[in-house]
């Protein structure tokens, strides 16, 4: 089960970012007394009463940005709403009910998601009567809070917990229907792939409009397992200034990727990798979706091209997706199509895997013993323990003495070490670093056990030994195990393709 998301929305300047900082106890978002300061989503994984959830801050709904970023802000808001488990509608009790508040509430009525109305800036009880005016929005429970006076924080957090989706153990054992997003630029053979699959298997159950107006969901059954292919129109570059790819096509593709369990990024074997391809790959990576790079129309190059050079070219073009498998298919004839779908099922299963907490910490201990964290500001950072808190994507929290001191390369090293020994070889892993506050050893063990959640119960001796970590070597992260790609890989491919 994925970590539930609690999304903070509202009109500009009602205190959404202040609410995020207040609930998390950290200064994550910039707070200024003017609208439009927050433009991108800000996510933070937090826990309360042993339940984990992601708190997501968004820009102000209805804000007109003078830098022409309104469309970008709106897309970020919609992305957050599409994945929300709970919505916190923030209003300003001092300003009272405004037409924009009513417009925001009207927009939220179209979503089948619990909504809590947070009446901010209610510094004392005299504002509670004014907060009652917001019942006219018809959005359920009103919670008057004050981020400045620290009023009703626990009330709001407990209300959030009451509305979080229940943790169902059956989610980890049953085989749900896999959703596969088929994305790519125009004329790479996506529709041919879907049509060939339907014709070859002759097991299409239904073809219905998707839950969005911009995609079509095609349900199939393959070897007794059901799955749903989310087909989207191809993307294209636009010639207009300031727009790198078609906005509406991009929006459709992004929604499909967010809905999917696995993304199939289609590429044309006869053409170079384009900017559109790279932008789609980046979005898939940012959404932590398992991905297969699908090289279609391979029959046109199979006689003159070796797959190893194409693999090298793809690794050079998509360095952040080196863990992603690569499939060479011919969609028109159906060659390797069934193998592609079976591989997608494997990724789906990998993304739902959970690591027992004790085993995860043994892997972390071994990795740190092989390669200790690089020194940061004359001190070596310490990693105490870790726990997997959710799946789809596999989400791991590491507790350390200073999150800023753990470099990105070292984070990648740790996650690659986990990949080597667990069933995460080809799927993205989401990593959070959290600072462990000073505490005595008994409290440390309690926090460790709490973080384990539903995984196996660890024992005290499974904790990472703080003293042994301090004695580890000073070697920095060694990149030598990574394959280096030299030269222009595509030119090598083009040269070989021209040889008969």
Major β-sheet strand ordering: 8-9-10-7-11-12-13
How would the global form be characterised?
globular
Q: What is the total domain count?
A: 3
Secondary-structure arrangement, i.e. CATH architecture of the largest domain: 3-Layer(aba) Sandwich
Gyration radius from CA atoms, angstroms: 25 Å
Biggest sheet overview: 7 strands, mixed
- The CATH class of the largest domain is identified as Alpha Beta
CATH homologous superfamily of the largest domain - what is it? P-loop containing nucleotide triphosphate hydrolases
Residues in helix, %: 25-40%
Mean pLDDT across all amino acids: 76
Tally of separate helices? 15
**Terminal Cα separation, in Å?**
52 Å
Structural class by SSE content: alpha/beta
Number of extended strands: 16
By CATH, the topology of the largest domain is Rossmann fold
Strand-residue fraction? 15-25%
Low confidence ranges = 30-39, 170-175, 200-214, 240-245, 452-500
Please explain how this structure is put together:
- This protein is α/β, with parallel strands linked by helices.
- It has 3 domains: 5-163, Rossmann fold; 172-352, Rossmann fold, CATH 3.40.50.300; 357-481, GMP Synthetase, Chain A, domain 3, CATH 3.30.300.
- Helix content is 33%, strand content 19%.
- It is built from 15 helices and 16 strands.
- It has helices at 16-24, 70-82, 99-108, 128-131, 153-163, 190-201, 247-259, 275-286, 307-317, 337-351, 357-370, 408-421, 441-452, 466-470, 489-498; strands spanning 5-9, 42-48, 51-57, 86-92, 115-120, 142-144, 178-183, 206-209, 216-222, 225-231, 262-268, 291-296, 326-328, 383-390, 395-400, 430-435.
- The strands form 3 sheets. A 7-stranded mixed β-sheet has the order 8-9-10-7-11-12-13, with helices on both faces. It has a 6-stranded mixed β-sheet with strand order 2-3-1-4-5-6, with helices on both faces. It has a 3-stranded mixed β-sheet with strand order 14-15-16.
- Helix 9 (307-317) packs antiparallel against helix 15 (489-498) and helix 11 crosses helix 12.
- The N and C termini lie far apart (52 Å).
- The model is unreliable at 30-39, 170-175, 200-214, 240-245 and 452-500 (pLDDT under 50).
């Amino acid at each position: 089960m994925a970590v539930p998301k609690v999304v903070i929305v509202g009109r500009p300047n009602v205190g959404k970012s202040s609410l995020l900082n207040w609930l998390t106890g950290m200064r994550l978002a910039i707070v200024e007394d003017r609208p439009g300061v927050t433009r991108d989503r800000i996510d933070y994984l937090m826990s309360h009463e042993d339940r984990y959830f992601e708190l997501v801050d968004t820009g102000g709904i209805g804000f007109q940005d003078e830098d022409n970023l309104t469309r970008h802000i709106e897309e970020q808001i919609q992305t957050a709403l599409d994945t929300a488990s709970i919505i916190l509608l923030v209003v300003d009790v001092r300003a009272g009910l405004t037409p924009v508040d009513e417009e925001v509430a009207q927009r939220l009525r179209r979503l089948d998601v619990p909504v809590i109305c947070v009446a901010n800036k209610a510094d004392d009880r005299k504002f509670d009567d004014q907060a009652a005016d917001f019942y006219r929005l018809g959005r359920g429970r009103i919670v008057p809070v004050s981020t400045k006076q620290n009023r009703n924080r626990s009330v709001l957090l407990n209300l959030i917990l009451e509305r979080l989706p229940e943790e169902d153990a059956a989610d980890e054992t049953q085989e749900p229907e896999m959703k596969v997003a088929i994305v790519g630029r125009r004329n790479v053979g996506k529709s041919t792939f879907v049509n060939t699959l339907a014709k070859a298997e002759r097991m299409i159950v239904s073809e219905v409009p998707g839950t969005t107006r911009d995609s079509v969901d095609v349900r199939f059954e393959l070897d007794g397992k059901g799955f749903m292919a989310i087909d989207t129109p191809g993307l294209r570059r636009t010639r207009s200034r300031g727009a790198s790819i078609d906005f509406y096509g991009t929006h459709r593709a992004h929604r499909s990727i967010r809905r999917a369990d696995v993304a199939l990024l289609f590429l044309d074997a006869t053409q170079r990798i384009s900017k559109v391809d790279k932008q789609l790959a980046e979005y898939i990576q940012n959404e932590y979706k398992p991905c297969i790079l699908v090289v279609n129309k391979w029959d046109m190059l199979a006689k003159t091209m070796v797959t190893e050079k194409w693999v090298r070219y793809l690794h050079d073009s998509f360095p952040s997706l080196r863990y992603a498998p690569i499939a060479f298919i011919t969609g028109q004839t159906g060659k390797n199509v069934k193998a592609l779908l079976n591989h997608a099922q494997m990724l789906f299963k990998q993304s739902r895997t959970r690591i027992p907490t004790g085993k995860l910490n043994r892997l972390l201990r071994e990795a740190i013993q092989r390669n200790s964290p690089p020194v940061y500001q004359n001190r070596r950072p310490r990693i105490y323990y870790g726990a997997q808190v959710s799946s789809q994507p596999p989400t791991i929290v590491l507790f350390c003495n200073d999150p800023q001191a753990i470099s990105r390369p070292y984070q990648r090293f740790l996650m690659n070490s986990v990949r080597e020994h667990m069933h995460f070889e080809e799927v993205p892993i989401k990593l959070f670093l959290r600072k462990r506050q000073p505490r005595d050893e008994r409290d440390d063990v309690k926090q460790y056990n709490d973080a384990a959640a539903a995984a196996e119960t660890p024992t005290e001796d499974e904790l990472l030994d703080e003293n042994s970590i301090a004695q580890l070597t000073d070697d920095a992260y060694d990149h030598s195990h990574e394959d280096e790609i030299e030269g222009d890989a595509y030119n090598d491919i083009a040269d070989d393709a021209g040889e008969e």
